[in-house]
Write the structure tokens for this entry.
Amino acid sequence: MFGETAFCRPRSGPGYWSQVPGLGRAHRFGDEMSDNEKILRDLKESVETWNLKLAESATKMAIEAGIEPRAIVQNGLGKGMETIGERFDKAEIYLPQVVAASKTMELALKLLAPLMQAGENVLRGTVIMGTVEGDIHEIGKNVCCAMLRGAGYKVMDLGPDVSPDKFMDAGAEHKADVLGGSALMTTTMQVQGELVKAVKEADASFKVIVGGAPVTQKWCDQINADGYSENGAEIVELVNKLMRK
Ligand code: B12
């Protein structure tokens, strides 16, 4: 998924030192758990237990330790959110706990935001992101926004519950290259299709990308969207590819 180099600081030290992708500092084979692995474990646990204090301290420690923001999200916080999703699916926890876990993840993302802002001079294109109309799930879309900003794109985040018209207006206003629609519910996926239709009908030049847990490449092809990615790490590659077309 990620190239090792994308996440790691340059190697240093003798041959038997190794690095786990995404972890800033080297650790030795045989160590039970490196400091950075412990930090990632704490990040995951903070979301799983909706522990705001732990999320704050672990995120600050991760930044200090030089762990790349993408690794902090994908290998730490995101893993915790996966557990939350699984436990919610099994009815082991309920909406209030999911909301609390979401707030924990959002707090950590806020702390990471300054690190994921690209300088004006490296802007590679403009992406309008939003969660489609009728859908209020935001976390995955926020992760995608952070990843794209970190990769040098100008990202306008329209938030949740965004109609195709709003996407189109924002696209025109900001001279966007790409419109990204997130949908977390099978019932709202069809709005992604309406967005593609709106772009084609207006003969606009925007590329439309789609994503969200129930979305697949098959769905993307079915609605004639320009691209799909399974997660926030791959969205950068996807947008890079579309910008080259
Ligand atoms: C957190 C959550 C909530 C939170 C949302 C908080 C917030 N601020 O976002 C709250 C508690 C508010 C919530 C509410 C509801 N939820 Co909810 N929720 C979830 C849960 C547990 C996790 C979603 C999540 O954040 N995942 C973590 C993120 C990081 O992953 P992600 O969203 O998939 O995003 C990644 C990729 O998909 C991709 N991606 C995402 N967007 C995009 C966009 C593009 C363009 C691209 C390329 C890629 C991409 O990259 C992201 C990062 O890696 C899921 C269960 C699950 N297993 O998904 C249910 C789930 C989505 N919810 C569900 C439901 C039913 C609801 C409610 C209707 C419940 C209710 N009875 O009120 C309401 C929604 C009301 C509405 N109108 O929208 C169902 C949907 C079922 C369905 N029909 O499909 C699920 C699947 C749970 C279930 N099994 O029943 N929910």
